[in-house]
Specification:
about 240 residues; mainly alpha
Length: about 240
Amino acid sequence: MNVTVMQLTARGLLGRRRALLLIILPLLLLGLAGLTRWASEASPEASSVLANNFSMGTLLPLMCLLVATGVIGAEIDDGSIVYMLAKPLKRRVILFSKLAVGFAAVFVFAVLPTMAGVAIAGDEGGQLSVAYGLSATLAAIAYTAIFVTLGVITRNAVVFGLLYALLWETVLGGYVPGIRAVSVRQWALSVGERLLGSRQADEWSFAAEVGMTTGLIMLTLTTAGAIYLGVRKLRTLTLNSVE
């Protein structure tokens, strides 16, 4: 990774109007968590439903898409990435630097608010917060890798990202069990479910469609595959094609 690339990427990400969305969405989650606590009298089950449906199902993928397209997609769209590609830097160093900034931003603006939201809405001894925090962290790594690579491959990364995150995982995954199992969200939840234990997970409605072993394998393969494709595409990205 390159410190200069990371600093430029972070400055570009946080200096744009999208920074407002990075703050607004977590605040919305914390507000909903407060309402959930008031309505359910701090029930961990109600807290789990909010975290599963809103934090893991909507907030996390949207934040990852927002951040991922911000760390590289915008530079490709406006052509400013030519200045970075012209430097004597290996393309994989550029991509890993941007992935690191993207994941750090998602951790701060999505994973930590998810844990805080669970703690506010209702928890017992921090178990549910830790389980959702671990699942959200694993999902954030995979989503960031996927969406950053989408930003390198296509200028319609936002469209494809929204189709995957909202249509595939949320809409279709909500009605078709087979599709629900092919989901970054379900793979990541499998680790949190194992951490809680089957009895506690059932009691708090913390359920995943796949086992932990399958979930970890799929997360690893998906993340590694996305990074490989991203590096490969960035290596073939010429200055003329960007311009």
